[in-house]
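Our working data are protein records whose layout never changes between entries. An example says more than a description, so a record of this kind follows.
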Amino acid sequence: MEKTLLEMKDIEKQFPGVHALKKCYFGLREGEIHALVGENGAGKSTLMNILTGCIPFDSGDIFLSGEKQNFTTPKQAQEAGISMVHQELNLMDNLTVAQNIFIGRESKGLFVNDDLINERAKKLFERLNFHIDPKEKVGKLSVSHQQIVEIAKAISYNAKIIVFDEPSATLTSKEITQLFKIMKELRESGVSMIYISHRMDEIKRISDRVTVMRDGEYIGTKDSSVVEIDEVIQMMVGRVIYEEHKKISLIEKNTPVVLKADNYKSMDVKNVSFELYKGEILGFAGLIGAGRTELARLIFGADPKESGDLYLNGEKVDISSPYKAVVHGLGYLSEDRKRYGVVLGMSIANNIVLSKLKNYISRLFINENKIKKTAEEYVEMIDIRTPSTNQLVKSLSGGNQQKVIIAKWLLNNSDVLIFDEPTRGIDVGAKSEIYKIINDLAAKGKSIILISSELPEIIRMCDRVLVMYEGEHTATLMADDINQKTIMKYATKQ
């Protein structure tokens, strides 16, 4: 029987208004990859942040190789051989890739030796088989490459335990395959890993065992080789989730066109045209780098275009900025919700009314009661899980943060909503709730553009799909033609 390397017993943690962990247990064996799963808000990241010294815990015990531990800083955990790749990127945009990886370890003298850390970073990426320039400023990298830098940073500590918190959420399928190859090599060298993911298919693919958490409690541990995914999901959510794919378009032939884009062009988009009907869910599909988000940002006025015309309800409009887009009834839910969707340090109530704040100001005073009443209406309407609308958004799960953004655009009464990766980093239970909200909005006549890298999501939700490849529009598929094989055919231009 494998030797236990780590045990966390009866871990308790409370935040104001939230009992985050309730006598929680987790055990890790030497040389295993152990998946840790649960809905958003289940306590997974909190438990791992306690393990790595990022936050204190109220009670319980942590044993590492049989010795009791209580890490009060990440540095203490790193010195004990524990590193973590955080779900939320923790990099400094103005520093280079190498400087981010080796920050605090640049040199032993008074001066930073950039040549040395550049060489060390280069060798690290060669070992990982990722091609990233160590001298590049992190702020210029894509989100997926920033995630790879985080992974390289964690591995650079030569840890005996590495915690991966949603590392694949922003990676391409090719990058995920390479990550799993690295993880298997690390396991063979004796490194133990904890892998947090909402992608159920990855559990069977990479892990040896899986532990399930729900509502801050330990539910159980199963061998990944024998457990069925449906059983894991039921343990996670406490109920059976069944989602049927859309087989036919719900849009009738005489449905009016709400939005028409004509020959949109930029550095990343090549003369793309499309129409969006009233009450339709139109998918944008393609591989990372296909230009899906870039096209959406052009439509929303967030990026400059070289050419292209936009028509709303048959009338030509000039949308050269997000402000003008909002005025014309467009809403955009960014793939990076923490950077562009919410203000983490503000309350739920203030986030919801932010774009309509002038409606809550009278004679230079903000009407807090009116804000509270409005927020409570939307919290109830779309079931935002929170003890109070005064709760800071940063304390919410990813799924509930996404609902706050949706509430903001609903309050703005947007007729066209662009959802860019709406379920990225969200568990299966919260995904089902987001899908229901999107379908309800479409049923009420809202027109939806849905951008997703998860093909099952596109297939399940969309009436039509616009497929892109390297900025080109390669196909438009109707609901009965939407399947993974056909989408990939046009997404790879084969």
Notes: The first helix runs from residue 44 to 51.
